[in-house]
Amino acid sequence: MTQGGMRTDAGSVLDAPWAAEVDDVFAALGATGAGLTSGAAAAELARVGPNRLPTPPRAPLWRRVLSHFQDVLIYILLASAGLKAILGDWIDFAIILAVAVINAAIGFIQEGRAERALQGISEMLSVHAHVRRDGEWTTVDAEDLVPGDLVRVRSGDRVPADARLVDTVNLRVDESALTGESLPAAKHAGTVAADAGVGDRHDMLHSGTLVAAGTGEAVVVATGPATEIGRISTLISTVDALETPLTRTLAAFGKRLALLIVALAIVMVVIGKLVHDFTIPELVSAAIGFAVAAVPEGLPALVTITLALGVQQMARRQAITRKLTAVETLGSVTTICSDKTGTLTRNEMTARSVRTRGGHYAVSGIGYGIDGDVTVDAAPASLADHPGLRALVETMSLCNDARVVEADGAWRLVGEPTEGALHVLGVKAGFDPAGWRRAAVVPFESATKYMATLDVGSDGSRAVHVKGAPDRLLARSSSQLGPTGTTEPLDTAFWNDEIDRLGAQGLRVLAAARTAPTAGRDSLEASDLDTGLEFIGLVGIVDPPRPEAVEAIAACHTAGIRVKMITGDHAGTAVAIAREMGIVRGDDVRVLTGEQLEAMGVEELHDLAPVVDVYARTSPEHKIRIVSALQSRGEVVAMTGDGVNDAPALTQAEVGVAMGIKGTDATKEAAEVVLADDNFATIERAVEEGRRIYDNLRKSILFLLPTNGAQSLVILVAVLFGLALPLEPVQVLWVNMVTGVTLSLALANEGAEFDVMARPPRDPRAPILGAAALRRIALVSVLIGGATLGVFYAERAAGYDLASAQTTAVTMLALGQLAYLFNCRFLDRSSVTLDVLRGNRVVWWSTIALVLLQLVFVYAPFMHTWFGSAAIGAREWGITLALAVVIFLVVEAAKAIARRARRAG
Ligand code: ATP
Fold this sequence. Notes:
- By secondary structure, the protein is α+β, with helices and mostly antiparallel strands.
- The protein folds into 5 domains: 2-55 and 120-230, Calcium-transporting ATPase, cytoplasmic transduction domain A; 61-114, no CATH class; 245-316 and 686-904, Calcium-transporting ATPase, transmembrane domain, CATH 1.20.1110; 324-345 and 546-678, HAD superfamily/HAD-like (Rossmann fold, 3-Layer(aba) Sandwich); 350-542, 3-Layer(aba) Sandwich (Calcium-transporting ATPase, cytoplasmic domain N), CATH 3.40.1110.10.
- Helices cover 48% and strands 17% of the residues.
- It is built from 31 helices and 28 strands.
- The strands form 4 sheets. Strands 10, 11, 12, 13, 16, 17, 18, 19, 20, 21 and 22 form an 11-stranded mixed beta sheet that branches.
- A hairpin with a 5-residue loop joins β19 (477-481) and β20.
- α9 (245-274) packs antiparallel against α11.
- The longest helix is centred in the C-terminal third of the chain and has 41 residues, at 680-720.
- The termini are far apart.
- Bound molecules: adenosine-5'-triphosphate.
- Keywords: ATP-binding, Membrane, Nucleotide-binding, Translocase, Transmembrane, Transmembrane helix.
- It is found in: Cell membrane.
- It is a multi-pass membrane protein.
- This is HAD-IC family P-type ATPase.
């Protein structure tokens, strides 16, 4: 690194690196075009700190704790405590306050758990940077970048730090995050004036901006807080809020319910006073008890924790959720649109056959291993005797950035799989690239579907080599290389037949072409390749399907989800692979190509999209049209993507799915879900998880609401009929609290029901609780509430004192809820099965905890003082247990009737 005296000089260069020559910037940073050594980088990292923007300070602990007191229930509790104080009932006052604190504490702990779960997820999505260290290009965590590092960016990358460009190829960067300018800015390495504004610094890359097209190399000049974005500190936060439409709906529901409860409490007090002549303290007690009983205070926290735990479990299964909402949406997905290469297939490419005008060649060998031969009619084909083959492998090998390295006896690919296959083909054919130098390149983009290089041979010969999608190259060719190595007119029909033939075998087809460069020019533009190419030949590449993806597609079909393949490959290849993978069946398969799609009217596409499952020759911009067409027919769409141009389609789809390995930062940021393993099977699993989590939410809500229903019913009935109160407010608080900390969390851990992937997708418009669920809630409220009232008045009639009758009532409530928990483990399926005892250990831990707490309530003397409870005998336990079993069985009978009604209807 630079030392003492040089600093001032270096400082002035680094104050405005955009105005300095590249070499001066390197010198000022003590770096070179070969990048830093890892030692120097580590030392610099220790000096300047990680390349990270300061995170916004968290709200202080006291404020976060206090925020949990901003809740309707807590207000009711605090008001109740106040009333108790006025009435001089200090024990109740203390208990109610204690419960308020415990409640807030539970909320605080739950929120912490949920936040930690989500934090862990966002850490999985850390940004990486492509950097040159110790002379080799590697990938490091973007946080480890330091000034002086040489970085490489390509379309779709988020720029990891502020950097001075050294070299660019068609580089365009979307700097809207920084400058507000929505059109991508063209970038080049030439200097600009020292006083140029951020938006005019064409030779700089700025941290946080997005590479829209092309590639570039740049030397890092500022990291972390020293970057432009760090200075204006607009933070791009990736941590998702704990809020989703569902939590908002439920929160709103909670508020409306609270109002209703207050209104009912007032009615109750008025009737109690006017009709039954209760005393004011009695009515206050009843009103407090009723309010506390009726407010479903655990609901929002329950939903949040269920979602957050679900997200965590999904991440363990390789599906990283960026937005909590996706968990809800995943369960209603009706169509999954998937890329082919790497998602449905393994993306391990091997060239199998070569077609030139001079012959058909077979290629042996597997994977990226270089052992194998190129043969014609089973005899080795030498390059000297086959000019077409020679021209083809020369093009495919030189217009190529991949290589293979041997490690531990296996060949490993460095670079893109398609290019790897073509590189290995060159090695097998005996092509030696030594002596060739690349003078210029037009990089591959999925929009153009080709790549070209200007190469100079050792003898000074110059040639432009082009490889890419066959149709793109055919359209640009005017001649072809003949069997003897001479140029002849292009026979498009011949090549189209050959392309179809290779495609029908499920092979990915790439074409090679070449042209003479403009004399005296050492640069290459896309426009140089628009016409006049000489077509050389074709290569057919296998890319085996992922076996687990084949199974996942079958599972999707059973689950009522349609799978569509969207690929840049040739239609023949697409159909062959789609058939192999079980996406389509039979002979009459409809395919839509990108071209047909473009020519089509909106209505026609809207009609066709739902029934066509294979899309070939598409470009990223076609995806958005497909998504819109499907959505216009009411489909809920999950769409995968990896390239920068896929981002709009991912945003448009209900569930955008980005590839974690292959995907660009732009796609990941647009996506709801990121697949850590790029695998289609993971999408299917995510859908399954989504359905499971939604089920669990319904189960939890279905469990929780009757709890409140039963308790409030007990008090309401007692007051309306002028009877003694079966539950004191503090006792209601007790039941609420113990079931809140034990039972209500058990269902968030419930496993998937055996038929989750055997039912059709959920209608996204259906409310989380339908009429059937509301009927169930009413029934269970009446059952548990009725049983509680029943045992209380029966005990009183049998001569037991108030305390023990109330204790029996509390026990009835607790056991009734426990029994009902087992009903709720399966939404529709019968719980009268041994399975109800298996599969969720948390249910048992909650059961044990509930029973222990209840024993404390009944038998601990201090509880008798605080909660007015009393010891009860075997008779009471027996009755309450028996009634709990009856409740369980009646609910099961109701479930069975509902099942039958649905099947009949
Ligand atoms: P999917 O099948 O999921 O759409 P894809 O790999 O086909 O993925 P792209 O990578 O955009 O999508 O490739 C589109 C087409 O471009 C390929 O079918 C192939 O013909 C051509 N192609 C792919 N990679 C290269 C490359 N490195 N150089 C030149 N042409 C390429």
